[in-house]
Amino acid sequence: MFGKYGRVTGLVAMLALMVAASIPVGGQAAAQAENVFVYVMDSTIPELDPSIDFSNEVVVMTNVYEPLVWYNPPGSEELVSPGLATSWDVSDDGMTWTFHLREGVTFHDGTPLTAEAVKQSIERTIEMGQGASFIWWPVEEINAVDDLTVEFKLSYPAPLDLIASSAYGAWIFSPQAAENGTEWFNEGHDGGTGPYMIQSRERGQNLVLTRYEDYWGGWEEGQFDTVVFLIVEDPLVRQQMIEAGEADFTLRLPLENVETLDDNPDVNVVIFQSYQNLLGFFNTRKPPLDDVRVRQALSYAYPYDQLINDVMMGYAVQAHGPVPTGMWGHSDDLPQYTYDLDRARELLAEAGYPDGGFELVWTYNTGNLDEEQAGEIYRASLAELGIELTLQPMTWEAQWDWALSDPENAQDIFVMYWWPTYVTPYDFLFNMFHSEEEPLFNLGYYNNPDFDELIDQADALTGTDRERAEELFIQAQEMLIEDAPALFLYDEMNIHYLRSDITGYVPNPAYANVVFVYQLRR
Amino acid sequence: MPRWEYLIRRLILSVLVLLGVTVITFTISRVVPSNPAALWVGPRPTQEQISRAREILGLDKPLPVQYIRYISALLQGDFGVSVRTHQPILTDLRTYLPATLELVIAAMLIALGIGLPLGVLAGAYKGTLVDAIARLIAVACVSMPTFWLALLFQLIFFSNLHWLPVSGRLSTVIKLTHPIEQVTGFYLIDSALAGDWELFRDALVHLILPAFTLSTYALGLTIRMTRSSMVEVLQERYITTARAAGLPEREIFFKFALKNAIVPTLTVLGLSFVYSLTGAILIEVIFSWHGLGTYVTEAVLAVDFPVIIAVTIIVTVFYVFINLALDWFQAILDPRVTLG
Amino acid sequence: MTEPLLRIEDLYVRFRTDEGTIRAVNGVNLEIMPGEMFGLVGESGCGKSVTGLSILKLVPHPGRITRGKIWFRGENLLEKPESAMREIRGRHIAMIFQDPMSSLNPVFTVGHQITRVIRRHHHVSRREAWERAAGTLDDLGIPDPERVMRSYPYELSGGMQQRVMIAIALSCGAELLIADEPTTALDVTIQAQILELLNALRIRRGVSILMITHDLGVVAETCDRVAVLYAGRVVESGPTDAVLQAPAHPYTQGLLNALPRPSARRKSLQAIPGSVPGGIEEIPGCPFHPRCALADDLCRSKTPIMTPVDSSGAHLAACHLIGKSEG
Amino acid sequence: MQRWLGDIIRRNEARLLEYRRMGRAFRRDVLAVASLIVIIAFALGAIFAPWLTPYPEQGEGEPNLSEKFSPPSPEHPFGTDNLGRDVLARVLYGGRSSLSIGLMVVVIAVAIGTPLGALAGYFGGWVDELIMRVTDMFLAFPPLLLAIAIASALGNSFTNAMLAIAITWWPWYTRLVRAQTLSLREREFVAAARGMGVRTPTIIARHILPNVMTPVLVQATSDIGSAILTGAAMSFIGLGVRPPTADWGAMVSTGRVYFLGQPWFAAFPGLAIFLVTLAFNLLGDGIRDVADPQTRRSVQ
Predict the structure, then answer these.
(1) CA D10, D15, D17, D19: dihedral to nearest 10 degrees?
(2) Angstroms from B242 CA to nearest CA on chain A
(3) Interface residue of B230, B234, B240, B254 to substitute, partner C, most C CBs within 10 Å
(4) Which terminus of chain A, N or C, has fewer Cβ atoms within 10 Å?
(5) Would you give the DSSP letter of residue D82?
(6) What total number of domains does chain B contain?
(7) CA distances from A120 to A142, A273, C239 (A)
């Protein structure tokens, strides 16, 4: 009986091998035969509720939902352009915003887009209070003036056009669909107005979109019928998939391989400035980093060129303060620290540490190779100043928890990335450097009332006098750079890989790693 | 034959082991430096959102109260929700568990299908070339870092030869054109039930590389274990009796001897099976096979304890029942064994 | 004179081990007549079991038959291929062992084991095989054969297990039964029953039996003829009565002295000094000389050959002392 | 009492003779001797790494970005890594953490598992039941999961990784030793000692433990290999040693990303893991064959 069993399983294994050997896999040909766009991503899509989503769901949501206003790609004349709203006005005091809605738009459940739907969408997001709902904090009241006119009354002046273009928390959805609740969304349903509808979703594995025939923009020959998001954690596999044509789009491949892929005629490499940057907060509440001279010394001790050229392979630029290159509010005229160990030694000596002689802990996200390598080269450099740097990988939550628990005993350098919820310098400056009673994201515990006042004032002007606001933001950054509450490491570039037969791709850093499939043709 | 009181006693003990495991996990979950509330609220929370999350998660209550709340929900079949994704864990498990089971069972069948005959032959022809080769394969299999082997497989079978896919459970196109009805969650079985052979074939070719990679360690163990039990059993007098009665060697090895020798092999396979439920993490990641391993690794890396506890419980249940099944099976195979 | 059923000529078996080559059997000669019960006696390690296994060509690894012929029904078994041997084993020559418990496969029922052997050698259906097995058991005087056949070996007594073994051995109608210490592990009353059973079988079915034992008492009770084995050689052979009444070889004498006899109850048992040689060292001369009180220079240098002890010519012994001193 | 002493002496003599025989037999086992040589070579390589490589500072972690990802060459036989460090130097230094993780895990696991197993087997009853249920709990707990939990609880460090693996490992020894003890308990010399009134701890220490050490040793040798594998797997998912300390698992993990373009980075440390694990397994087999050809890996 067991002999037989053994033989049977052996046979099955053999058969499997034979079958496998005889069928080469024809993924490429098949993928092109269907009118399918395959986006291979590196991590899961956790949340599909449009009131809650706040991470890489954005690549899905932007194809399914639409906001009132879109933020434009860099190089455009205006910052924003019409989405579901065709035009908008703001009162002189910046306290009342009126949006005029597009006509003839329907949600995927067939109900029409109305001012009431907009009001209910945003109110649901605010009431749920999750995800990026805080972007609506300035809003006191939403009124449906008529069927296609919405009025927002604010409690303090704020740039509601920018807020409405947020990549998170600004979606307009069918209030009827929303009544089904969060779980319903997460089962693979949606209530958007966008060109595609969610067809199915397998948690942690894939998500499939299908064309919404009644999309207000209409459909033309050659646009994609189906969009598939596949989750493939392994960069090696993603690379193999884009090379083999099993993927039409992917990202986050080893920087060392960019050139090889660029040489591949089947793959188109798109490189552009992102709105994400890497910083290392200095713990300004803990000696010796409470001394500005030490912080400046440490800023001079960072080998920026090595970081940019050797670690990042040139696919990043050294930061000028916290607002990333290419974004409004950024200025290339702002000063930068350069790698200058002599200057660092002088400053350390002034501060009373001529031979270094202290230890620092650098915490970073477990498994993040860039943060790790950034630490490794810093470690070697600081060793020359007699400073010992310990690299401590931690989960984000643990790292954060440590920083929030007790500043006096927290890590010395907290390394993290920042990207904007909606595109304003205030997002960077307020969150990371505005003083806080209890630390939240000001993880260097920087406290400077002058700075606070300056950026608050700039924010209030953003909706009405953007030029003045930008000046104030730049002025505030100058202050920061002088005080050196953080290492301003680099502004990252995004590197996207597309099959070269895909046309129409325009990267937009305001919506991180998003591909607007509606715009594409094969 | 197994007795009922034995079964009941074992079940009660199993429940105690399960409770013990939940207590340990639960305790670990509260001493590990993490911030479940922060995890709950997502990337850019406000202070308000955090304190609300603490209430929702019951973190403001004393530890025993939290534990009792958890256990009583569990008894009603509620594993709770993931702190990180807010998804009901039960729903997640329904996707991930079958994926992992399909992979692990395939791997175990490969280990059994190749390892058992090889081990029997090696034991039967101890000291010969067959034996030497089998032992070499076995020791190489147990020494092989699977993640490394997976890389080599990828490079050879996908990048160079283009024979086998390396990612996921189905190709994209097949997935789109062949909607699959989830009956068991095992693609091979579901597609066979539906009579969709194209889907079946696609699922099969996707299964081959990960299953073979995962099977290596179990394969090595199976060969070694079967071989040494066979060597031992073949020295028994009753084998000489069988030979003296003129029975063919094949039957002696694969039936007379194997029935005596198979229990240790099944035991290691059973334990490998349980181990692989979460131990397949690396293989799951490398082959984008989204199963229990990936699920729990992500949970562990984010310190998402409800998920960790739930998976631990599932795995413990498997462990307990597989042990029970093994004992039972041994009693069926060997009438001398009495349970109790 | 009838042809012998089995004739072993000049059989040598060697075991090659790490420690050296063990000479287990060194030129054994013997003949077994049809219907005869032939005793092969010796201490443990003398090569008697290996001789028995050699007949079936089942010498365990790393042993090998290096020389000799084994004639069975006019054919030399040693020249037969393994496949032909398998036809002979169980069908024509069967074997039973000392410990019936370990000789039966513990995980199959008795019935399964018997019917399997029957079906191996006869083209019969399962049912027929089952009935035939039951018949054999019944023939062996086993009460309730159906119940026994449905039992696992461990559920039976030692005597019953040995009967089952005999049933397996004889179920296919073998002409020769090799019984390797068939009663050693059993208690006295059961021993007697089994011996009686074997004897009855021999008479009723005409089966020849090679009785391998260390127990001269068993030989005395059952065997027609006997051969005494020492260090892989036959040192004395002949009709049982002759050998036991008038042992010619000092070793046989020693064995007999070690036997508890009713007549010598008061006398303490006289064991042979020393022990059976390991078989690795080659002993020059008579293999028994290191333990022999009577050994002289000749014994130490020249190996004795089998010579007739008395006028009948049937009783032979390999000892230089034969004919010298009065025996 | 004297007979008793004599017995002990005789048994010790017998054991000594047995060891001599084992020594002889072992030397005849070519594979086992070769494995021992491989292990010693790796160990020496790890210990004398600073003198064996021209780039000791790179072995310890100093970046050398100007030579980033040089393919294998006479200067860098194994090439260089993502920070330009000599991969050979990193592999030599990596042996320090990998080998000591393997060794220490097994030592800790044996130290916890053996006495517990002896207690369970010797006393039986509720002691046995209790110890075995605790063992069950630890066995039921997914091993990598427990290890990961501990590592993330106590932070990534060499010691924690080691501790974490050891905690998932000891129950195997408890089971093994318990099974051995159960049969030893019934043997004459133990019964005799008990009859003589020898105290229980003495019996366990003098008569039980020495006699279970052979199977434990055999098991432990093979397990060093598996422990190295587990350690490597932990490093692979980023829970092993802290950078810039070299570790084979961590190197494969980082190097994996570059496997298509710069295969040497992951290949050599992977090979090192494979070779050392293989050597320990073969050595374990060799010891097993020599110590007792009948012994088999006891699982139950």
Answers:
(1) -170
(2) 16
(3) B240
(4) N
(5) T
(6) 2
(7) 9, 36, 116
Domains of chain C: 6-107+152-288+311-317 (3.40.50.300)
Taking an 8 Å cut-off on Cβ atoms, the answer to whether B282 and D233 are in contact is: yes
Chains that touch B (3 or more CB pairs under 8 A): A, C, D
- Considering the domain architecture, whether residues B319 and B292 belong to the same structural domain is answered as no
Residues of B with CB under 8 A from a CB of C: 126-127, 236-238, 240-248, 256, 259-260, 333-336
Cβ-based neighbour number of residue D268 at 10 Å? 24
Contact A174, A107 (CB under 8 A): yes
Q: Which two tokens stand for residue B70?
A: 């958890």
Q: How much is the average pLDDT of A483-488? A: 93
Neighbours of B277 (CB within 10 A): 24
Residues B33 and B53 in one domain: yes
Verify that B211 and B310 share a domain, yes or no. Answer: no
Q: How far apart are CA C98 and CA C194, in angstroms?
A: 12
Shared domain for B69 and B204, answered yes or no, is: no
* Angular region, B270: left φ>0, alpha ψ -120 to 50, beta rest: alpha
DSSP 8-class letter at A316: E
Query: CA-CA distances (angstroms) from residue A232 to A35, A74, A141, A229?
Result: 21, 30, 43, 10
Task: State the residue range of the domain holding B26.
Answer: 1-84+303-331+336-340
| Mean pLDDT along residues A259-266 | 91
Residues B207-219: b if buried by 16+ CB within 10 A, e if exposed:
bbbbbbbbbbbbb
Give the ipTM of the model, two decimals please: 0.77
**B62 lies in the same domain as B130:** no
Distance CA B17, CA B10 (A): 10
**Residue of B35, B4, B18 whose CA lies nearest to B304:** B35
Q: Both B95 and B80 in a single domain?
A: no
Contacts by A332-335, CB closer than 8 A, 24 or more apart:
A334/A474, A334/A477, A334/A478, A334/A481, A335/A478, A335/A481
Which residues in B226-260 are b (16+ Cβ under 10 Å) and which e? bbbbbbbbbebbbbbbbbbbbbeeeebbbbbbbbb
Rounded Cα gap, residues D72 and B58, in angstroms: 57
Which amino acid is residue C235, in one-letter code?
Answer: V
Those residues whose C-beta lies under 8 Å from the C-beta of residue A274, and which sit 6 or more positions away, are A324, A419, A491, A492, A493, A494, A509, A512
10-residue mean pLDDT series, chain C (327 residues)? 84 82 87 91 84 88 87 88 88 86 87 88 88 87 88 87 86 87 82 88 88 88 90 90 88 80 49 68 80 83 85 86 61
pTM: 0.80
- Touching chains A and C? (3+ Cβ pairs < 8 A): no
Q: Which of residues 98-157 of A touch B (CB under 8 A)?
A: 129-132, 134
**Span C168-186, pLDDT tens digits:** 888 888 889 999 888 887 8
**Do B31 and D153 make contact, defined as CB atoms within 8 angstroms?**
yes
Q: Hey, is the C-beta of B296 within 8 angstroms of any chain D C-beta?
A: yes
Distance in angstroms (rounded) separating the CA atoms of residues B253 and B239: 9
pLDDT in tens, A168-216: 999 999 999 999 998 899 889 999 999 999 998 887 788 999 999 999 9
Measure the CA–CA gap between B296 and B316, rounded to whole angstroms: 14
Residue C288: C-alpha distances to residues B8, C41, C285 (Å): 65, 15, 9
H or E stretch including A198? strand A196-202
CA distance A83 to A72: 11
Is the minimum CB–CB distance between B22 and chain D shorter than 8 Å? no
Instruction: Give D-chain residues touching A376 at CB under 8 angstroms.
Output: 61, 63, 83, 243-244
Q: Does residue B130 sit in the same domain as residue B201?
A: yes
DSSP string of C179-227, one letter each residue: EESTTTTS-HHHHHHHHHHHHHHHHHH--EEEEEES-HHHHHHH-SEEE
B28 and B65, same structural domain?
yes
